[in-house]
Amino acid sequence: MTGFPDITPDLRARMPGLRGELVPNAPLAPFSWFKVGGPAQVLFRPADEADLSVFMKGLPADLPFTVIGLGSNLLVRDGGVAGVVIHLGKPFQEIAVDGLRIRAGAGAADVKVARAAAEAGIAGLAFLRGIPGTIGGAVRMNGGAYGGETADVFVSGRAVMRDGTIRVFEKAEMGFSYRHCGVGDAIFTEATFEGRPGDPAAILGEMNAITEQRSASQPVNTRTGGSTFKNPPGARAWELVDRAGCRGLRIGGAQVSELHCNFLVAHPEATAADVEALGEEVRRRVRETTGVELEWEIKRIGAARSGE
Asked: What pLDDT digit, counting tens, does each position of 37-57 carry?
């Protein structure tokens, strides 16, 4: 692949006050836990929320954008991502506690927010320990695990809109449902959550139990993307995958985890095409075996490599 046309000079000309970093043809594989995939036409790392606002205001209306965080549930296709990929990094990782409320930047790791809440004696957020992503992703997907989900503790979210304006969304405006948020073209920069009084030691004990359970039942130290498919109503995705005989199934360098059937593992030789083809084959077999249509939970972005 020869790469995308470099549009960063035009973007800089449109936004003379921009302070963040613009990188043309930036590799995205390092941002995905699968460690596969092509480049971003442009990677933008905003300096802060105000900088992101300037960027969105100046972004051409016909230029697509995608937002990424830790990349824990992200599959970047081999042909790369046209347009702009926005990475919310260190400037968006602040965590602040106020009574039973905790405010966290969209780039803050879920586990760090869970720990900050525990240390402050705020119960109800321990489930975040089981989600290997960022607060931005948890809000966007109504992330959940171990009996809790983001909507349970969400109070409000602050976001930069497509036109660069900044808006605060209350819980009633979010349109939360299972692994879904109904807000459209908004880039969440922070969120506020509220828990209930709890004992720090007990909450940390709950988090440790989640850690042990994850380590025993999931391939946590491999190149994977977390839960591949959403649980269908009244069923568990991993059980359907197992029933379809897909445990250990392999295509190219991608394999269904032997430990947990709802996880796909990318071996060193894997391509994004291998991972996606494996996921689609699993969906086909589950559909034929059980009649259930599994829905991807992993976010897939970009285009296949030319010729595939």
From this structure: 999 999 999 999 999 999 999
State the maximum Cα–Cα separation within the chain, in Å, rounded to a whole number.
Answer: 57
| 170 a catalytic residue | no
Residue-wise pLDDT tens digits, 159-179: 999 999 999 999 999 999 988
Of the candidates 149, 190, 206, 297, the residue annotated as catalytic is 297
Closest CA to 130 of 117, 116, 143: 143
Give the integer Cα–Cα distance in Å for 89 and 177.
27
Catalytic residue list contains 14: no
The one catalytic residue among 32, 53, 72, 227: 227
Query: 8-90: what fold?
Result: 3.30.43
Residues of the chain with CATH 3.30.43.10: 8-90
Question: What is the CATH code of the structural domain delimited by 219-301?
Answer: 3.90.78.10
Q: Looking at domain 92-216, which CATH architecture does it have?
A: 2-Layer Sandwich (3.30)
The answer to whether residue 190 is catalytic is no
Q: What is the pTM of this model?
A: 0.91
